[in-house]
Design a protein that fits this description.
By secondary structure, the chain is of the alpha+beta class. Helices cover 21% and strands 41% of the residues. The protein has six helices and 16 strands. The strands form four sheets. A five-stranded antiparallel β-sheet has the order 3-6-1-16-10, with no helix packed on it. The protein has a five-stranded antiparallel β-sheet with strand order 13-12-11-9-14, covered by helices on one side. The relative contact order is 0.24. Pfam families: Bact_transglu_N, Transglut_core. InterPro entries: Bac_transglu_N (IPR013589), Papain-like_cys_pep_sf (IPR038765), Transglutaminase-like (IPR002931). This is Transglutaminase family protein.
């Protein structure tokens, strides 16, 4: 068990003052299996009223608007989370059992449908089906497919952007965690395994000293359903452990961006982001 403190600052700087802006933030983790939120808070400048609710996928959303002219919008989310070892694979089910189970509930069917961001390239589908055909169980297939994607894609920051599609990143064999998660999800869904996009944070330093603050960033990984939901980090080829803090779920990144908004005004806006992560115990 470990305690992780996260300070995530983000927002927009406007080329010309925004007359008004309307925004949603998904930056606060919630208590769930494997993690307990001891403290969380979101500060918004300019100060404004806010509304909080859990969205369809169970992610905590803060919605707000700023109706006075402003040259900058800044959000600072601070959280202290106790992270515990996750319960891993449950009972093993067959392909036939999986096929029957996923048709009984919307939450499984919805995670079988590809989105624009996750549609896989044809050669990736062939690779995924070859792995699935040679696997005795869906669980074995899912683990092998996720590892294959993680080993195929080289993690390089700056070669993709927030709107890059899975098939584009797959062709170039380069990308970041968002791309690797999208590719993995597309491959799993292509062989009939429900898969979901998970957003959150990963402490980047496994051997960090208690009290040491390091520069971090938002992170993404996947969960697949093969009798139980099983989380895995294909970017780092590791199980979800005490360095991962989960914020939200979605079909793809579009369901869980940390900050989304529109503004009234002329000129452009520039997004800024910093993340600081501290191991407290």
């Amino acid at each position: 068990m470990s305690r992780i403190r996260i300070k995530h600052t983000t927002g927009y700087r406007y080329e010309a003052p925004a007359m008004a802006s309307y925004n949603e933030a998904r930056m606060l983790p919630v208590s769930s299996d494997g993690q307990f939120v001891i403290y969380s808070n979101l500060d918004i400048h300019p100060y404004t009223s806010m509304n909080q609710y859990d969205d369809y996928w169970g992610t905590r959303v803060t919605s707000f608007d700023v109706l006075n002219p402003h040259s900058e919008l800044q959000l600072t989310a601070e959280s202290l989370v106790e992270v515990r070892p996750r319960l891993m694979r449950g009972h093993v089910i067959s392909w036939e059992q999986l096929g029957k189970l996923v048709q009984r509930s919307t939450k499984y069917v919805e995670q079988l449908v590809q989105t624009d961001r996750t549609v896989p390239a044809d050669d990736l589908v062939e690779k995924a089906k070859e792995i699935a055909d040679g696997a005795d169980t869906p669980d074995e297939a899912a683990a092998a497919i996720a590892r294959m994607v993680g080993e195929e894609i080289e993690y390089i920051s700056g070669v993709t952007h927030v709107h890059t599609l899975a098939r584009e990143a797959w062709v170039n064999k380069k990308g970041v965690c968002q791309d690797i998660a999208h590719i993995t999800i597309g491959a799993l869904r292509a062989v009939g395994i429900p898969a979901i996009y998970v957003s959150g944070y990963l402490h980047p330093k496994p051997d960090a000293e208690v009290g040491e603050t390091v520069t971090g960033e938002s992170h993404a990984w996947v969960e697949w359903f093969t009798g139980d939901w099983f989380p895995w980090d294909p970017t780092n080829l590791i199980d979800i452990g005490e360095r991962h803090v989960r914020v939200g779920y979605g079909r793809d990144y579009n369901d869980v961006p940390p900050l989304r908004g529109v503004f009234a005004g002329s000129g452009k806006s520039e997004l800024f982001v910093t993340v600081e992560i501290t191991k407290e115990s």
